[in-house]
């Protein structure tokens, strides 16, 4: 059977009080609407249509080729939104799932169960419902005295009696496609909000003696709709718990999962230990047997095996097996740290490759450079890469020694095995085994200190 889905994503999201359109607000690093798409794709929906309106171009850009788009020019309600897909869908046989773009926590498993329930009962529509601890704001499921679903009533239209109902409409439905579009033609906007409610389609189908059923899911949290920032924070927490639980089940140790913030899609190998207050974002992969110490923040980076990161910040960087960094260091884009390299504290590395076994212990800036193997970079070395207009490159050969508090003024080449004396400002290339010393000579004035007035 052909399976279609419509994602409703045209609303502005007034309650978010944001410049960003609601469905683009992120949950664990991914726009809410992208979470919905992920799960629909996993549930093997053949044909996904997204209804866009506010910020249509931005939303379309975020979704790309993963869905077709229809435009809802004016936001006249969820029923009106679905109507916009009529040209693409109305005549097709099969089933249509309707989902909101602001419910990021649904799983493919729930969608599949809903479709199965609906198919077995040969229903015209099956509403996905759940039991809300606090149903305020949600549409309520009105059942008759024998428990059969009659209609959905929106919060603003509900009587005091109806407001007490705790079974809510999750905003997800499985429809017989043709019956959905036929019923939409009968919608009106005669309600408290003056909108064409999709929820009224339920009552319409019921009035036509169609089979209307409800599938009640166990987990309310999964059905949560995000209308404001309070709900957004809660959705992040729930999703974070899911991500962390899965990683722990796969063999990652977390000292404090409640303060471990890992984006959806991040990969972490087994026997890696993650301490508390860690943020791991974007397209990041971490290998096995690593230690990610408290206070670290890692974005879009690749960390191989056996790597130690202590209270440091990494962005678009790579660290190879056995390397370590920190505390309090910073890898910026295109920093590639070789095997068994040691980067100590208060160092910054940008657009530089550091070869195997090299040590950069303390207070050093390495920018626009290629360093070979087994080099010792002393304390407080500056790779002077910028002349105010352009960036220049520095090369340092294998086994070189860069004394503390040196400046390597790029462009410059430090040959393998050469030795830069502490405090030198190096502007000329060295040859292999050279000792380069570039600082004023010291003079000691005998007994002069006695003449000082203090
Ligand atoms: C809706 C349901 C409510 C349900 C709740 C679940 C209706 C009338 N109410 O209420 O029963 O309990 O979801 O989360 O359907 N949208 C459009 N075009 C519009 C209006 C909305 O595309 O003209 C989109 C929004 O961008 C959003 C979704 O539809 O993604 C739901 O709209 P929203 O205003 O959030 O509805 P709720 O008040 O949450
Ligand atoms: Ca909503």
Task: Pick out its properties.
2 domains; binds calcium ion; 454 residues; binds uridine-diphosphate-N-acetylglucosamine; alpha/beta; UDP N-Acetylglucosamine Acyltransferase, domain 1; single chain; 39 strands; 11-stranded parallel sheet; Spore Coat Polysaccharide Biosynthesis Protein SpsA, Chain A; 9 helices; 14-stranded parallel sheet
Explained architecture:
The protein is of the alpha/beta class. Helix 2 (56-63) links the parallel strand 4 (47-52) and strand 5 (68-71). The structure holds uridine-diphosphate-N-acetylglucosamine and calcium ion (CA). Uridine-diphosphate-N-acetylglucosamine (UD1) is lined by residues 8-11, 22-23, 51, 53, 72, 75-78, 80-81, 100-103, 138-139, 152, 154, 168-171, 197-199, 225, 227. Uridine-diphosphate-N-acetylglucosamine (UD1) binds at residues 8-11, 22-23, 51, 53, 72, 75-78, 80-81, 100-103, 138-139, 152, 154, 168-171, 197-199, 225, 227.
The CATH superfamily of the largest domain bears the name Spore Coat Polysaccharide Biosynthesis Protein SpsA, Chain A
Domain module tally: 2
Q: Describe the sheet with the most strands.
A: 14 strands, parallel
Low-confidence stretches: none
By secondary-structure content and strand pairing, the structural class works out as alpha/beta
Please tell me how large the radius of gyration is: 31 Å
Report the average pLDDT across residues.
97
- Report the sheet-strand fraction: 25-35%
Outline: elongated
Quickly name the level 1 CATH class of the largest domain.
Answer: Alpha Beta
CATH architecture of the largest domain: Alpha-Beta Complex
What small molecules does the structure contain?
uridine-diphosphate-N-acetylglucosamine, calcium ion
Instruction: List how many beta strands DSSP finds.
Output: 39
Overall helicity: 10-25%
End-to-end distance: 96 Å
CATH topology of the largest domain: Spore Coat Polysaccharide Biosynthesis Protein SpsA, Chain A
Instruction: Determine the number of helices (DSSP H or I, runs of at least 4 residues).
Output: 9
């Amino acid at each position: 059977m052909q399976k279609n889905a419509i994602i409703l994503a045209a609303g502005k999201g007034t309650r978010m009080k944001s410049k960003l359109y609601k469905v683009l607000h992120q949950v664990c690093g991914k726009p809410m609407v992208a979470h919905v798409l992920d799960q629909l794709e996993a549930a093997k929906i053949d044909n996904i249509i997204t209804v866009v309106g506010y910020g249509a171009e931005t939303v379309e850009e975020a979704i790309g080729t993963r869905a077709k788009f229809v435009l809802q020019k004016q936001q006249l309600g969820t029923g009106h939104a679905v109507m916009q897909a009529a040209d693409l869908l109305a005549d097709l046989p099969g089933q249509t799932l309707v989902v909101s773009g602001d419910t990021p926590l649904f799983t493919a498993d729930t969608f599949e169960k809903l479709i199965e329930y609906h198919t077995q009962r040969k229903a015209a529509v099956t509403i996905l419902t759940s039991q809300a601890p606090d149903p305020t704001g949600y549409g309520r499921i009105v059942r008759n005295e024998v428990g059969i679903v009659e209609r959905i009533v929106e919060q603003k239209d509900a009587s005091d009696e109806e407001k007490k109902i705790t079974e809510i409409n999750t905003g997800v439905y499985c429809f017989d496609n043709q019956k959905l579009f036929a019923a939409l033609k009968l919608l009106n906007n005669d309600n408290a909000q003056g909108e064409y409610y999709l929820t009224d389609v339920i009552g319409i189908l019921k009035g036509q003696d169609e089979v209307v059923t409800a599938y009640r899911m166990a987990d309310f949290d999964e059905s949560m709709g995000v209308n404001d920032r309070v709900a957004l924070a809660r959705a992040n927490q729930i999703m974070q718990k899911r991500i962390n639980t899965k990683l722990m089940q796969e063999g990652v140790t977390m000292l404090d999962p409640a303060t471990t913030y890992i984006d959806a899609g991040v990969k972490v190998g087994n026997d890696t230990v993650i301490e508390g207050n860690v943020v791991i974002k974007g397209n990041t992969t971490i290998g096995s047997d690593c230690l990610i110490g408290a206070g670290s923040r890692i974005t879009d980076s690749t960390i191989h095996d056996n790597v130690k990161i202590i209270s440091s910040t990494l962005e678009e960087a790579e660290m190879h097996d056995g390397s370590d960094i920190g505390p309090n260091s910073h890898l910026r884009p295109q920093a590639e740290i070789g095997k068994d390299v040691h980067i100590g504290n208060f160092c910054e590395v940008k657009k530089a490759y550091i070869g195997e076994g090299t040590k950069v212990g303390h207070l050093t800036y390495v920018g626009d450079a290629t360093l070979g193997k087994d080099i010792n970079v002393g304390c407080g070395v500056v790779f002077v890469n910028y002349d105010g207009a352009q960036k220049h490159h520095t090369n340092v050969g294998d086994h070189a020694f860069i004394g503390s508090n040196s400046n390597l003024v790029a462009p410059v080449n430090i040959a393998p095995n050469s030795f830069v004396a502490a405090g030198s400002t190096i502007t000329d290339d060295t040859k292999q085994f050279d000792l380069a010393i570039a600082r004023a000579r010291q003079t000691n004035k005998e007994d002069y200190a006695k003449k000082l007035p203090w």
